[in-house]
Design goal:
single chain; mainly alpha; 3 helices
């Protein structure tokens, strides 16, 4: 994930980030199914998507902590 994409994610609301995570998890699920059947050629995208999901979840937790601290 590029730095400018991370900045864009930090500017989004928690609800928007949750929608992105939900879509990415669905994509990951379908990729996992395709990986098991041998249809995926770019297996590095599987790891990249998992890391992107983790980054977005981290941003969500940080935003939640900021609002709780107020």
């Amino acid at each position: 994930m590029k730095a400018n994409k991370r900045k864009e994610l930090r500017e989004k609301s928690v609800a928007e980030l949750q929608v992105i995570v939900r879509d990415d998890v669905k994509t990951l699920f379908s990729m996992r199914n395709n990986k098991s059947t041998g249809e995926v050629e770019k297996t590095h995208l599987y790891v990249q998507l998992r890391r992107d999901i983790a980054r977005i979840k981290t941003i969500i937790r940080q935003k939640a902590a900021q609002t709780a601290a107020r």
